[in-house]
Design a protein that fits this description.
This protein is mainly beta. It contains eight helices and 37 strands. The longest helix is centred in the N-terminal third of the chain and has 12 residues. The chain is globular, with a radius of gyration of 25 Å.
């Protein structure tokens, strides 16, 4: 949803904290919806913006926490081996494209990237476009795009150290960042380390409780069916450690030429009972931008990303029975040419995708090339009417699949509201794993088989939205600005890649990857934001979603029809030495559409967050999560992973401000 926050008056600014002022930009700029910078209020497609202030005030450790607190209709659960699984408005992780500064990430587990790689310490903002976006971003953008954008400090230098402790899992997060900036160079360096202990989840119902309910049922007495249906499949959360280092260096060689280099390393261990999983991520890239007069510019870039997994015994011996390596090389070109108030974008990409995994026959490897070209024309017909059209052609070598995707977006600005209408098509090419998998799942005599003849998944997204932003004046203490957005959408999803009964193969029962009938997802998103000049703020987000067609529900996939997030905030500087940012936030998830009684039938979780700015550059953070001590009736892959109320305390020190 579009949520453009207002600028507060200069007289009020002296009373409010810097973090609060950061959240009330008059016209924030976004790039994900159009591939070029555009004011949020002018974005051709409904875009949800999570600002730097939003990131700070949520006290989130990772991207999962961040998005869960900010976006309704989005829920993270667990897949096999306790890797993270995403569900966003009826789509799983392989249908939502995650980008870091516009670049893809390699590697996946159960169709999801490793979200732990996304370190929030150096993130400036997050942009989310829901619905098909393949006309600009190609494969995997069937259900939406999440673009995590690094911040670029403009001060001569900055240095920050921070630490945070959370009682749930005795989690420690420690981080540091450093930047310097002059006329030619800008460097951003960040480091983060987290450590989480294993957590034993309480058993929902004891054997005695189950026996009592069985006796009641046998005697014809009223009994609790949820107790008898209890089949919790989670009893212990694995501990883990992560290390994340990133560097981003910008060189303004001339007034026209800018070069950006980046590099990163990620390491994670997941500590199992009898062995440990090790995950390694390596990323690097170089981008050049040359600008001519009158807004013309050309961008050329190369990106490399690698993601490895391996299995180690407690003594440190590598077993080589779970080796996995995915490497991606991506070359990108984009040319922007203005025509007065209008503009044309031409772009092309080349990607080489290599995968070696224990799930292939005898540990073999496969590779494929993806070549694409796209064009977008931004036509400002009048001051009120803007039309943006995009078209893209993709070719994948391994499956010999071709895809043509389009988007047409219309924005009309009335004096009292903004109207948006959008059609976009999306696709997802079959992955190397889906085409070539040959894996005896768990050595249980059940074979998962790939299918080289798979067709791409396709989607057609239609949405309309209205937005109203207004300034409230002459109300004294309650002067401020509000924003309201309402969007309705329909996403028609076809040729969905799933598994079907593959019969007996090589003497084993098998499942075969196959294109099944699709589903249709209907939904409504509503957003309300209000900021008062006195320092109070309110943000409400609601999502309704309904799936029709051949819908599959599983322990990992339990979409909910109704969901909501909210945050009530207050920012004020009380004296020269003390300022406060406070937030009371929460999320609500309704009943699962599957109707399963053994899954949480709806829940809400609240969080109280206080940031105490006690000195120049010194901030003490305290938080109470799950404020009202909600506990699931049983623990499933898709249930909220909480054992009740937890508390956290943190310290952040900006060394350059002391």
């Amino acid at each position: 949803m579009v949520l453009a926050m207002p600028a507060i008056s200069l007289s009020a600014q002296t009373k409010h904290t810097t973090a609060f002022r950061d959240s009330v930009e008059l016209e924030p700029v976004v790039i994900t919806a159009s591939h070029t910078p555009k004011a949020l209020k002018d974005a051709p497609v409904v875009t949800r913006l999570i600002t730097l202030h939003d990131i700070k005030i949520t006290d989130a450790t990772n991207i999962q926490d961040m998005l869960t607190q900010e976006l309704p209709g989005l829920e993270f659960g667990m897949a096999m081996s306790q890797e993270t699984s995403l569900n966003m408005s009826g789509f799983g992780g392989n249908a939502v494209l995650f980008l870091v500064d516009g670049e893809r990430m390699a590697g996946e587990t159960m169709d999801n990237v490793d979200y732990n790689r996304m370190n929030l310490d150096n993130v400036g903002r997050i942009e989310i476009v829901k619905g098909a976006s393949s006309a600009l971003y190609g494969s995997n953008a069937v259900g939406g795009v999440v673009n995590i954008i690094s911040r670029e400090n403009l001060e001569p230098w900055t240095a920050n150290v921070n630490t945070r402790y959370n009682s749930f899992g005795h989690e420690w997060r420690n981080g540091a960042s450093f930047s310097f900036n002059n006329e030619k160079w800008n460097s951003q360096t960040s480091f983060q380390h987290t450590k989480i202990d294993p957590v034993d989840l309480p058993k929902a119902h004891t054997s005695e409780e189950i026996a009592i309910e069985l006796m009641k049922k046998a005697q014809g007495q009223p009994y609790d069916e949820t107790v008898l249906n209890d089949d919790s499949n989670l009893s212990r959360l694995y501990g883990q450690k992560t290390y994340n280092v990133k560097e981003r260096l910008t060189w303004r060689a001339t007034d026209r030429l800018t070069l950006v280099g980046r590099g990163g390393y990620f390491f994670r261990t997941s500590e199992r009972d009898t062995y440990d999983y090790h995950f390694n991520g390596y990323s690097a890239g170089l981008k050049g931008r040359y600008a001519w007069d009158y807004g013309r510019h050309l961008e050329l870039s190369y990106a490399y990303d690698q993601y490895d997994k391996a299995n180690f015994q407690p003594d440190g011996t590598r077993t080589h029975d779970h080796d996995y390596s995915n490497r991606q090389h991506v070359a990108h070109a984009l040319y922007h040419h203005p025509f007065g108030k209008n503009s044309l974008i031409l772009g092309a990409d080349y990607m080489h995708d290599y995968l070696s995994t224990y799930q292939f026959i005898a540990g073999t490897s496969h590779a494929q090339e993806n070549i694409d070209g796209y064009a977008q024309f931004d036509w400002n017909v009048t001051e009120q009417l803007n039309i943006v059209g995009s078209v893209r052609y993709d070719y994948f070598s391994a499956s010999a699949q071709k895809a043509l995707t389009e988007r047409l977006a219309v924005v009309y600005k009335f004096p009292w509201m903004t109207f948006r209408a959008n059609y976009a098509s999306g696709f997802r090419a079959p992955t190397l794993k889906e085409m070539y998998m040959h894996f005896d799942m768990g050595n249980m005599g059940y074979l998962l088989r790939g299918n080289p003849d798979l067709k791409p998944e396709k989607s057609h997204n239609f949405n309309v939205a209205v937005e109203r932003t207004n300034r409230i004046r002459n109300s004294g203490f309650l002067d401020g600005r509000y924003n309201f957005t309402l969007m309705g959408y329909c996403n028609i999803f076809d040729k969905r890649i799933t598994t079907i009964d593959g019969g007996t193969y090589e003497g084993m029962e098998s499942a075969l990857y196959w294109n099944e009938d699709g589903i249709t997802v209907w939904g409504v998103d509503a957003s309300l934001g209000h900021i008062w000049d006195c320092g109070l703020s309110l943000k409400l987000n609601y999502s309704w979603m309904k799936e029709t067609g051949k819908v599959y529900y599983s322990d990992f996939y339990q979409p909910r029809s109704h969901s909501m997030t909210w945050r009530m905030g207050y920012g004020h500087r009380f004296s020269r030495y003390y300022a406060l940012d406070a937030a009371l936030s929460g999320r609500y998830q309704g009943k699962p559409q599957s109707g399963r009684k053994d899954v949480d039938q709806g829940y809400s979780i609240w969080k109280l967050m206080l940031q105490h700015h006690v000195w120049h550059g010194v901030t003490v953070i305290t938080a109470i999560d799950n404020l009202f001590n909600y506990k699931p009736k049983s623990y499933y892959y898709c249930s909220p992973l909480t054992t009740g109320t937890s508390v956290s305390v943190g310290l952040s020190v900006d060394l350059d401000k002391i």
